[in-house]
Amino acid sequence: MIVQSEIKDKKKAILRSTLELIRENGFHGTSISLIAKKAGVASGTIYHYFTNKDAVIIELHDIIRKEMLAAMFNNAHKKEDYKTRFFKGWTGLCIYFIDNASCLIFIEQYNSSPYFKMNKKKQGKIPVNKFSEFFQYGMDNGFLKKMEYNLVASVVFGGIMNTAKYHTNGQYKYNDNDLCKIAKIIWDGIK
Predict the structure, then answer these.
(1) Rounded Cα gap, residues 46 and 72, in angstroms
(2) With a threshold of 0.90, does the pTM exceed it?
(3) What is the C-alpha to C-alpha distance for residues 172 and 157, in angstroms, rounded to an integer?
(4) How many Cα atoms sit within 13 Å of 77 on the Cβ side?
(5) Which of the chain's ends, N or C, has fewer CB atoms near its CB within 10 Å?
(6) What is d(CA 133, CA 93) in angstroms, rounded to the nearest whole number?
(7) pLDDT for res 23
(8) DSSP state of 76
(9) What pLDDT, on the 0 to 100 scale, is given for residue 116?
């Protein structure tokens, strides 16, 4: 009989291995056989947990998205003013990507892939989520300029992704003060 923790461990190893392989080889260069080898499981074991590689990628995306939400919307900051929540959220998400470079690379690839387009089509033009709600609240209450969500998202998330990328690839080493300065530049552009 397989113990529940063993199941979780195998599934976790599959997901972790997939993430590492995608960082090294991209989506197309990551096969089920490579995932199985890196995770130390048989290929058939992967199919026990996932219908195919697409299912592994979609689950990884869901996990990373939840982690991104937790990094940006820390419950400890809920009662703070909007600007403070923006700054703490921006730097929190940037630090998440700096600390998790594989997740940064995964999200960049995912957002440029057919997976993103399929998911967007399923959810409609602009999926309502905590990110869009936060920025819509800021616009509705006069904290941010009124503009389309996709414009705000490009500036805010583009800044986060590029800052984290510059840091992780060694171009610049940002400290907390630097991150706050970059967040202020972004804030000044959208307030």
Answers:
(1) 32
(2) no
(3) 18
(4) 18
(5) N
(6) 16
(7) 95
(8) G
(9) 75
Look up residue 73 and give its amino acid: F
At 127, which amino acid appears? P
Q: Pull the structure tokens for residue 176.
A: 């907390």
- Helix, strand, coil % over all residues of the chain, rounded to 5: 75, 0, 25
DSSP label of 77: G
CB-based contact 74:88 (threshold 8 Å) = yes
Q: Residue 125: its pLDDT value, please?
A: 45
- Closest CA relative to residue 135, chosen from 186, 100, 94: 186
Distance CA 20, CA 72 (A): 23
Compute how many other C-beta atoms are within 10 angstroms of the C-beta atom of residue 32.
Answer: 17
pLDDT (tens digit per residue) in 64-103: 999 999 999 987 777 899 999 999 999 999 999 999 999 9
Range 142-153 burial, b when 16+ CB lie within 10 A, else e: ebbeeeebeebe
- pLDDT digits 0-9 by tens, 117-147: 776 555 544 445 888 899 999 999 999 999 9
Rounded Cα distance, 55 and 37, in Å: 18
Please give the Cα distance from 178 to 91 (Å, whole number).
10
Say what percent of the chain tops pLDDT 70: 90
| Nearest residue to 17 (alpha-carbon basis) of 1, 3, 7, 32 | 32
Q: State which amino acid sits at residue 163.
A: T
Tokens of 159: 């800044």
